[in-house]
Structures are given as C-alpha cells and as structure tokens.
Amino acid sequence: MSAPAEAPGSRAARVRSEIRDTLARLAHLADLGDPREYAACFAEDALWEVSAGAELPIPPAALRGRDAILAGAIERRAAGVQGPGTFTAHAVSTTSVEIDGSRAVARSLFMFYTGLDGAPALAAVGRYTDVFAEQPDGAWLLAHRSITRE
Q1: In the sheet that 61-64 helps form, which strands lie side by side, from edge to edge?
Q2: What does the pLDDT look like over 97-111, one tens digit per residue?
Q3: Alpha-carbon torsion (29, 57, 46, 104), positive or negative
Q4: CA-CA-CA-CA torsion for 78, 83, 85, 90, nearest 10 degrees?
Q5: What pTM value is reported for the model?
C-alpha cells in the first residue's frame, strides 16, 4: 500500500523547513563540525563559488563537486579562516525559499563574526544564493551556492 499523497501546501512547508534546517546546519558545520558532514549537504556535482571582488575572508573560488567542496572546507580550516579554534562564527538570516518542482532557490543574508574569544567583530556581511535539487530519495541537497558580499 502506498503512502497517501502529500497536500501541495504541506509539501511546500516541509521543503522550506528542510532547506532552512540545511542552511543552519551548514553554518554550524562550517564553524565547529566535521567537514565531511558539511560536504555531504551538497549534491555530488554541486558548484560552490565566491564572487570575485567580494572582499571576504576567503579568496574568490569556484569549486565543482563534493570532493572539491570538502577539500575547500579543509583548506579554509588549515588556513585558520574558519573552524574549531578560530573563534569565528557564521550567522544566517532572512532566508526566503522559492520552490519550482524539484528545484528550489534560497536567498539568505549572512554575517561572519571573528574575535569570539574576546571582542567579537562583524567581519563580513553578504548574501548566499543557494539552489537546491531534490534527490531521488527525497532529500534536498545544495546544487549551487553563490556567495557575494554586500
């Protein structure tokens, strides 16, 4: 016996909630979590990019594929830009999610703080434009993250 069909409005609410949870999880994982768990939030062929001229604590980059995204996360930790012991934190807010079938676009404001071990300072403010793709198992993974500075 198959599961009952989900009402359209409840599907949209569930998808929006799942996407917002994933965005919060990504921020927590970037700051204190396992880089492999961070990379697992992305589709296998995902694109992660930082715009040129963004003047963020990380250089412009375009990383294609989950393995490259994982390597980038490990590299940022090795450089002391983010992760445990760097006393930095990401905050994500004002997220809007537009769903179109098996794709969704989330737009969020982010703030990046440094100096959490003493005098916290806002180091960067910018935007995430995130394209999510529904996977065959029903999970929503990031297919494209674009990072720009305000």
Answers
A1: 61-64, 42-50, 140-149, 121-134, 103-114, 89-100
A2: 999 999 999 999 999
A3: positive
A4: 140
A5: 0.89
